[in-house]
Amino acid sequence: MPGAGTHEPPREPAGGPAAADRGGGWRLGPWRASWSPREHAAAVEAVRDAIGRGDVYQVNVVGHASAPYTGDPGPALLRVAGLPGARYGGVLAGDGWALATASPETLVEVRDGRVVTRPIKGTRPATEAGRRELLASAKERAEHVMIVDLERNDLSRLPGLGPVRVEELFAVRRWVDLWQAESVVSAPVTGRLDLADLLRAVCPGGSVTGAPKLAALNEIGHLEPVGRGVSMGAIGWVAADYIDLGLSIRTVAVDGSRVHAWAGGGITWDSDADAEVAEAAAKAAPIRAALAGDSGGGATA
């Protein structure tokens, strides 16, 4: 899986769904969500209730939607992988399945004696006003710093690492038509670093779970109506001399008959339910537009 924009470009999937239909004819049907905007808003309020009880500080809630399709999904998946701002853009495919990612977020990278994670939290439209609003938002900054602290703690528990430090805090990066806040957390490798220990420490990513992580996962299990599938996991490269894993946000999966997509956001005490529903829709919109392409479909049901 290509990662960090430094490896080979994504290739059209071979042997994936509808691989025999090379004549095109791609058409995307109407999207059907696993929960309505009202149900999503109710989940936001349920998280705020849990925060009020002292059970959690932040929970990332994620919704799922799927749409039927006909024809060859390969070109549509390549459009997703090619979205601007994707640090991990690519396509994977097998017998009867395929997925595409346009993830901007580094879950963990190990290279040149250094471990790095780049959590992303905080979203606004990619306008100058949106950039100023994101930088000035106390709510977004508090949500972001909470996850940075969680990631620092995850790395600090690993043997074989030196002091963990925040190299960059709340830097604004662009993904398609959205500004997002990103930090860089790193530690030097000072001893033996076991891959299994590393993955146990960082998975699942703090930015797609919440804090405390185990309590947040418990809330997620109760609130989300369907599983997260390939989303919110890890995708990238593991080699003898480096590791580069992206968090599989902005990721879609295709089976023999449907396209699946996920989007969500972090909920804190200061969250507004309607704003959180709108933010999830804004994150999903570029993915849906890329998938629709020339299909003429993609309406929401």
From TrEMBL:
Enumerate the Pfam families for this protein: Chorismate_bind
Domain of life from the UniProt record: Bacteria
The annotated region (Disordered) lies at 1-29
Q: Name one GO biological process term.
A: L-tryptophan biosynthetic process
- For the Chorismate-utilising enzyme C-terminal domain, which residue ranges apply? 38-283
The family database entries (Gene3D superfamilies) matched by this protein are listed as: Anthranilate synthase
This protein is called Chorismate-utilising enzyme C-terminal domain-containing protein
Instruction: State the species of origin.
Output: Paractinoplanes rishiriensis
